[in-house]
């Protein structure tokens, strides 16, 4: 695990030669040793095609490559940071919530419509997350930002978890998500309970939920 | 006599833990997950929560807006007139429901037949059996910028209140009254009298005040919840 939590809003990463890391541009707070930061025009890994893919998908966040030897501290906007360890599975997260991640992880973009069909696309629109999301796969660690603290809720088969779309941060594992609606006539006349749309996650894995309904 | 009234008479203000047999209805279990997320375990019973404050749940839940905070027509009219608006929803079901609001710190309050006074904006969730209402606060409200009325929660059960930063609970006893900055006050419970006091002097009038011109003074026996942050108040500037 290259990330060490300094406090709830700062992480410290160890950089060794030959191993690169990616982080959100401008998220470095301090560093020790000989470390270089280069802006990454491609916005992450992959060649020209993945760069175009991310631009089209609007999942392109300004990233920078961190290389050298030393330790770097990351933090951004006073947001809480959750370190997620991946052991071969896939993490689904919005690109703007990514603070830093291991270079060994394989970065990709996923089309929401491929999971849940039309409802998946509706889901992206309703939650304001767009039609695409970022995936990270492999062995390594990811630092994810959230407003307020984060709780991890396990998802087991036969026991789905429902999440408020605005409080959803990320999920990993073999999880299917779909948008479930509880729209009634009350919502139509403006007397809804404020919980008309929910994200239903089923399968096996875990979902990260933040203690706030504010987007970053 | 309605069901909730009967239950209240049975428990008679005593601690509910000593009389478990008298609880006929299953009671929602409140617990904190971290300091900013409230988890409520429910088995078919209901809780009242701030509109839109659910962040996640497992099991099966129903959400219904309570028009007028479930206080009936009279309560609804009172809330409209006093401006102490409160949008509540009723959550009912089986499973665990998680509540949070704008990353505020959450404090659990147990009520044993006594009354909790709290600003409606600081109330997150209450047990389904508790009754809510409005009461007049007097001059204090004007200085806190919260209006002249406040929300009361009454009965036996648990409630969750929110604060900006972790709240401290200060005990007030007859020989030791307490003065609180109106901007940092969030709630109080017990048999307390409150009094508005001002330290406006010649210096304040010429713009050289210490920024602490107004305080609320609590006397009696009870608890006061204070947050480590100050809202913008009229009195805060002078």
Automatic annotation (TrEMBL), chain A:
Top-level lineage group: Bacteria
Pfam families, per the entry: AIM24 (PF01987)
Classification via InterPro entries: AIM24, AIM24_sf, Trp_RNA-bd_attenuator-like_dom
Gene3D superfamilies according to UniProt: Mitochondrial biogenesis AIM24
PANTHER family: ALTERED INHERITANCE OF MITOCHONDRIA PROTEIN 24, MITOCHONDRIAL
Protein name, entry field: AIM24 family protein
